[in-house]
Amino acid sequence: MSKSKDFLRTIVEEDLKSGKYQEVHTRFPPEPNGFPHIGHAKSIAINFGIARDYQGRCNLRMDDTNPTTEDTKYVEALKDAVKWLGFEWDDSVRFTSDYFPKLYDYAVELIKMGKAYVDSINEEEMREYRGTVTEAGKRSKYAERSVEENLDLFERMKNGEFKDGEHVLRARIDMSAANMQMRDPLLYRIRHAKHHRTGNEWSIYPMYDFAHCLSDYIEGITHSLCTLEFENNRAIYDWVLDTLELDPPRPYQYEFARLAVNYTVMSKRKLLELVEGGQVSGWDDPRMPTIAGYKRRGYTPESILTFCDQIGIAKANSMVDVSQLEFCIRDDLNTKVPRVMCVLDPLKVTITNYDEKEELDASYYPDDVPKEGFRKLPFSREIYIERDDFSQTPPKGYFRLTPEQPVRLKHAYIISCEEVIKDANGNITEIKAVYHPASKSGSDTSGIKVKSAIHWVSAKEAKTVEVRLYDRLFTNEVPESVEDINPDSLKIIKNALIEPAVITDKPDERFQFERQGYFYADPIDYSDETPVFNKIVGLKDSWGKKKKKAPKSEHKPQAKKEQIDGEVAPMSESEQALFDKYTAELKLNSEVANTLARDKRLSSFYEDALSMLNSPVALANIVANEVARELKENEGETLKFTAKQVAKLVKMLDNETISSKIAKQVFEEMAKSGEEPTQIVEAKGLIQISDTSVIAPIIDEIIAKNPDNVAKFKAGNTKLLGFFVGQALKATGGKANPKVVNELVAKKLK
RNA sequence: UGGGGUAUCGCCAAGCGGUAAGGCACUAGUUUUUGGUACUGGUAUUCGGGGGUUCGAAUCCCUCUACCCCAUCCA
Questions:
Q1: A193 is in which domain, residue-wise?
Q2: Are residues A92 and A103 part of one domain?
């Protein structure tokens, strides 16, 4: 819970605190035109998660405004995904199509206001008229139609009197807007298509930009959270809601970065290619990043949710490492699932000195997993071990069975290799071994030390199962095409051998196959005749890693990329003159002079202030930095403070009535309220304290309270000077003279 | 090329003028009948680059660079 808040939660919290809204209400609004993937999971986790965290509500809304791409099967898949992840939507599932009548009325209203018109140019003309990113567009002649004509045309569009593409309804905004989205965006188009819910009732369908904001409003959404690519659409969102002058409160849109994971593709198009190209078995292929795929693979909803939680929410486009996801599922399953033994690549071992048969008690869980349960494990003369677990010529650091090195059979006895049997080609076909009777697991008195315990199955009792080993679908971190497909992403082992209890007792559907990884009984192909297990994820394998790392890649020195500075636009003649004057006469440094000279508002503000107080450098600094910020932040608006006030502030700074730190504070007050700086200082008692006899005891106290940091400082961590100064300043409400504090601290800590 | 965004460790990501959080990955060690888990350490003298303001800058100012989004009758 100590995890820091993301920016969306921060916004929500502030809005709740300020009373902007009584309750948060979010929504997850997919278009039902494809199967949900892990990117949707992130959106689900955000929208439902925020609603849950702040005791609000979250709707599930199908944004079904395009009848040609949407289908009911997708709405079912979407509902399943939300449910599987453990969330419940508020009330019933919403559909934008439910609002078609209302949306139509809003459009009529816009037409009546003269804010929307029916346009009748064709697509090609439309593109031409829209202009380009650098050139303004222009309106078509149809924009001049009267309100009556527009109303009539729009109604006839609705009644199906026109063909597709003959007319559209557009918002009347600004064909020369720098934001391309605002160049009279389309609101409605004619579409004679069967909608998956409304059938043929409608001939016109609203566009995203018109439908989404209003659907949010209709549902009482407070925070409309979407991905970054809609940033430019926010202006329309606001425009529609504002020009309609709807009763408050209204929703606001915020954008976050969509999820990208390396070695996977996420776009609907690429996913579809995989399915149609037969590279995968379907949308629920365990290698697919779809919710159905993860589900079939054996991922738990908890692990997906933890993953979404761990990656955070931000506005920077980023690419998450799959290993983060893999960690989440391993971590989740580690404490949940039974451990069993399954041999993937069997090597026969005959224990020559064992003729009996026994059943061993074996716990399903290791000691560090607080769960109980055990099964009977048959042990006999003939067993199978993993081929990897024997080596005749072991590499360095090999812990398993060798001709010289005994090994423990997990839950059973220690065995030693006596003889290696090979076929004509020299392949090992069998091991003859002996067991040590006194070494039985749990009552070992043999005193034999082994380096590891390996898994095994009893030959006679073991069941044959099919195991499907999955690896990442692509070999490329950022897959481009099918050429990047990993040819080994699926390996099927038909004759793996598993201990019988797994099949007969079915203690769970997910297992850890000891020393191999986590596996899931395939929900579709599993049958008692041929049990099928999907590999969810492997265990961490530091041995395998060590082996592979032989050709240790040289540390790439990766010299910092040299950055070349671009050219700075030249100054105009008057700017240059100003710059020269500032640097030569007023002795400003070139950087500050540059900032001032290039900005008309700044330079005139500066000149004004200068006429009242002859302190060119201090004034220039504050204008070029603080005033510049205020100007930037309140673009267009007039400043609340005057040059005269700034001059007064600088004067106090000049005669050291206040410190520079306090000056910033006062400036901010002044910028916010327009109050006189002298008054602010007086009212708050912000006069600087430079008296060492006042400051010294404060520093002493801080030093006494922070012995650790004092020690660190004395050990050479000089950065900590700032810490002590900061503490002293905090203790005096920022009033202590920082220069004096600095000196004092340095002296006392010496 | 206009507009809108974004840049903090190999990958995510906190941070909002006063000691560069955390997770993954990596790495060393301890425990271990899973080369798993758990635990303990190590990993950014530095925040895209360069300047400036300040006693003090990842945070404020200027400037440059790189990447993403926008010219579908898609969402």
A1: 97-210
A2: no
